[in-house]
Amino acid sequence: MKHKKSRMQAVISCIFALILTLLFITLYVCFGFSLGVFSNRSIIEELNRSNYYNEVYDTLNKNAEELVIKAGFPATVLENVITIERVYVGGRNYVNGVLAGEEPQINTDKFRSDLTSNFDQYLTKQGITRTDDINTGVEAMISEIENEYKSSIQLQFVNYIIEYKTHFMNLMKVIIPVVTILIGILCFFLIKMRKYKHRGLRYINYALIASSCMTILAGAYLLVTKQYEKVNVTPDYYNNFLTAYLKWDIMVFMYLGGIGLLISALLISLTSFVRNRIMNS
Amino acid sequence: MNKNLVRILTYIKMSLFFMVLGSIVVYIAGAPIASYVIAQGNMIIDKGAPGYPGDSNLDLSEPIVKANGTLDQSEFQIPELDTQYGTITCDRIALTAPLYYGDGEYVLQNGAGQYSLSGMPGEGKPILIGGHDTTYFAPLESIAAGDMVSITADYGNFEYEVVGTNIADVSDTTAYDLTQDKEQLILYTCYPFGAVTGDRSNRFFVYCNRISDTTEAAE
């Protein structure tokens, strides 16, 4: 009878521990997404780390030069218009605005006026008569370069991240409390149903170690097989940013798994302490 | 055996046991959710690209569609399987999706896929294009008769008008006709929209007729 009761307790403990494992994994996923994928700081840091704005500037400059040269103008008409400072400030303000939940505004008035002034100066210097055709052509060229500038600094990816972040956070408001309560209930029953409390603690620890190891191993697999490099999108600067950003997101999960293992180490000490106390009493 | 060593081995054994069990449960229960998340992620990455749509090495500088809207067969080449050859859009419902030749899972995770045994835009034959209801084809939920659907292919632009929609079982072969003699664009996706689990045996079909000109392919 005693043996049967003991076996029953072990089976129930295993079931509870398995459910705990899944609940811990759910928590890891939730926190991983919050601190990694949907973290504003992650996005901003990875944009800087991947040299995003410098590469946007290089690409924008090259495209704009091709446009003006094709139209018969020298690249000097772009002088002091497309600058690294303008691209960086414009891009950074756009990203910060979107991440702050604002409607991003890209002000190109100064850009347009500087460019118009350069074209005017060039035409005057060359002694070219401003006919309607030339004015229309120049106007179209300026608009095209302005649009090229706007589309270069508009990182639509951030808009989508914020949109999904809103839905995710609404979901988290329900999931996190529910999961936490369930974890609390299962831990309570695991400890309560055992005569010797440290045995219940062990099952909680098994669940924590299992879930932490699964998280770390999954992250390690993705890092070793370089899944984050298989994104393959254009342009290159966007691809580089995504590679860095995804790599960081994977590492966040591994760090969380590491924290889980640290907590389980503390739990092992606690289990040992409780056990020794029981033995001594 | 040393008691501490036994305890350590028990910790390792039991943790491995729960890892294996947990992995099996996560794999079985989490597969549809993971697939959904990956598809959403691919869509965000695609649509978030600077200058989207358009950065797909498509060259519209030399369209090979003749003035009457038909394909110049002497210049036309069927795209390679699983390559993007165009974009499908419907402005009213904000539908924008890369259009691939082929409709395998890789394609559907990255855009809309054309059934390779159906016709090409401009060929004068029915075109069957599928997409996931949770990603690129999610806007189809709001589509209505009279809406304009555009296909911008690397060889020309084609316009279609929605004439109707239908919900049918996935095995219902009467839901569309690929043998008809006109160029009908048939879009389809899973129904009901947005469901990740549950009964996914229905499909939502959108029928669109080519507008303006004749659709006979040149011989």
Notes on the structure:
Chain A is mainly α and 281 residues long. In chain A, 82% of the residues lie in helices and 0% in strands. In chain A, helix 1 runs parallel beside helix 8. The two termini of chain A are 27 Å apart. By secondary structure, chain B is an alpha+beta fold. Chain B contains two helices and eight strands. Chain B has helices at residues 3-47, 105-110, and strands at residues 83-90, 95-101, 112-114, 127-130, 148-153, 156-169, 184-191, 202-210. In chain B, strands 1-2-3-4-7-8-6-5 form an eight-stranded mixed barrel. Chain B is elongated and about 85 Å long. Chains A and B meet through helix 1, helix 7, helix 8 and helix 9 of A and helix 1 of B.
Q: From the alpha carbons, calculate the radius of gyration of chain A and give it in angstroms.
A: 29 Å
Q: Encode the helix/strand succession of chain B as letters.
A: HEEHEEEEEE
Number of domains of chain A: 2
Low-confidence regions of chain A: none
Distance from first to last alpha carbon of chain B: 86 Å
Global outline of chain A: rod-shaped
| H/E topology pattern of chain A | HHHHHHHHH
Major sheet summary line of chain B:
8 strands, mixed, barrel
What structural class do the secondary elements of chain B suggest?
alpha+beta
Topology:
The complex is a heterodimer of chains A (281) and B (219).
Chain A: H1 2-37, H2 40-49, H3 52-70, H4 84-99, H5 109-126, H6 132-153, H7 156-192, H8 197-224, H9 236-280
Helix pairs in contact in A: 1-7, 1-8, 1-9, 2-9, 3-4, 3-6, 3-9, 5-6, 7-8, 8-9
Chain B: H1 3-47, E1 83-90, E2 95-101, H2 105-110, E3 112-114, E4 127-130, E5 148-153, E6 156-169, E7 184-191, E8 202-210
Parallel strand pairs in B: 2-3, 4-7
Antiparallel strand pairs in B: 1-2, 1-5, 3-4, 5-6, 6-8, 7-8
